[in-house]
Amino acid sequence: MTDQETAPVDGVEQATAGQVATEVVAAPRDEAGQSNSGGADPAGSTPPAVPVASDDPTRWGRVDEAGKVYVKAEGGEREVGSWQAGEPAEGLAHFARRFDDMRTEVELLEARLRSGAGDPKQALTSAKHVRDGLVNAAVVGDLAALSARVDFVIASAEKAVDKAKVAREAARAESAARKQTLVEEAETLANESTQWKAAGDRLRAILDEWKTIRGVDRKTDEQLWRRFSKARDAFNRRRGAHFADLDRQRASAKTRKQELVDEAEQLSTSDDWGVTAGRYKELMVEWKAAGRAPKESDDALWQAFRAAQDKFFARRSAAFDERDAEFGQNAKLKEELLAEAESIDPSAGLEAARSALYKLQERWDQIGKVPRERVRELEGRLRAVEEKVRGAVDAQWRRTDPEAEARVAQFRERVNQFEAQAAKARSAGDKRRAEQAEAQAAQWREWLAAAEQAVATR
């Protein structure tokens, strides 16, 4: 070979036409064995066919008597090298194989584009490199068909680059939208949430998710990150202020509850059962209103508070048990008095009955209290005796009431007066006055009859 020979493109694997046949389906030929070299159709889906040059190198070039190798080109032919080492056919086959290597290189680029395994941008660069080198390539083959195939690969690569760009932009927009959503959630938590633990856990989860999102442009990413960081800082400040305030409240609650414990312990020795029990109820209300102290202190204060209460109510219970025993004995004594009281008979002597009842009432008061559940029963029986005696006294009073007798005499006198006036008016011939006097006499006569009946039925 001479210096005019050119090596295959750097960085691209060389292979024979037979090797390519196992990786890429060779482009079809027409019936005449010619390549479909009418030019690349970037918009089409079928790549232009490129014949295998090594099958018949003489179709695409020649070797002259001086050993110079030529390839058919547009408008004629051009020299691609020299072959002096052997038969001319061997030289022509050598340059045809080099063409097939370039053909294989192009088909490999195309295969990678179709499979999506390669980088479209790198494939585009490689295809352009092949196209640029094809002008002076030291090869023998269908240069027009290979050029059309390279143009097809370039067009496909450009489409793939554009598609990848659109996909990257879509992915970038989606990633930015995801981060925007996370930022908005973080800002909502920072400004509104009072569920401190849950919100803090969620902010940490948002940060972990944030780290997995890629592809956002630097400017947008920095803006969103600043908002997210600001939201986290705001949440941490609110949470810190809340717990600082909570600590102050708990310290205040501890002080207040200690005061309540002190008062409860002082009251635990009181014998003023009713007032003290009422105060303990008030202390319980105040205890609940005081709020929670730090847990360890709160538990200890509560135990001390309950111990003071228990001490008082245990003492009260013992005192009530003793009192109940005394009240039970009082009930028996009052039952004995009631037996005497219920035997009083006012009809046998009203003054004696009143005197006996008065003495029983004095003894009743001296006995003292009885169990609460017996009060109504015993008081009711005594009240019945009192009403019996009082009823007898009232009946006697009504029978001897001087006012009732005087009222009867007064009514009778008025009747007589109006009857006399009526008689006098008739004698004088004054019929109208006579009728008026008779009407008034009739009215007073009715009242007189009612008064006389009341006196008679006493």
TrEMBL record:
Pfam family, one: DUF349
Key words, A-Z: Coiled coil
Keyword Coiled coil annotated: yes
Coiled-coil boundaries: 243-270, 375-454
Superkingdom assignment: Bacteria
Compositionally biased intervals (Basic and acidic residues): 56-65
Name the UniProt record assigns to this protein: DNA repair ATPase
Gene source species: Kutzneria kofuensis
